[in-house]
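Title: Prediction job returns without error message
Component: structure pipeline
Severity: low
Priority: P3
Assignee: unassigned

Description:
Job completed but the reporter wants confirmation the result is attached to the right record. Sequence as submitted:
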Amino acid sequence: MSGDLPFKYGREKKRKKEHDFRVTAFHVVQEATGQSKTESEQVNADKEKKFDSVALGHLGGLKGGKARAKKLTPEQRKEIAKLVASVRWRKRD
């Protein structure tokens, strides 16, 4: 009975991806002419980009609270403080 089934245990076999000769030739030419980056160079570039964006976000966060405090009036700050205190000290069920 198992010989009648086109696949084993309900799963199809994955076909290997066929490699296109043109794509392979393109990559070979890129490497030969020095136009392509190696994997380690690409990884380093990705890490550098991530670090840059994290650093910029950190700087913005450092500026944000002080700038907001300058912009708010004393009445607005008092209102926000009351709201925060009520939420902090409310009874939870």
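Comment from assignee: result matches the submitted record. The longest helix spans residues 39-71.
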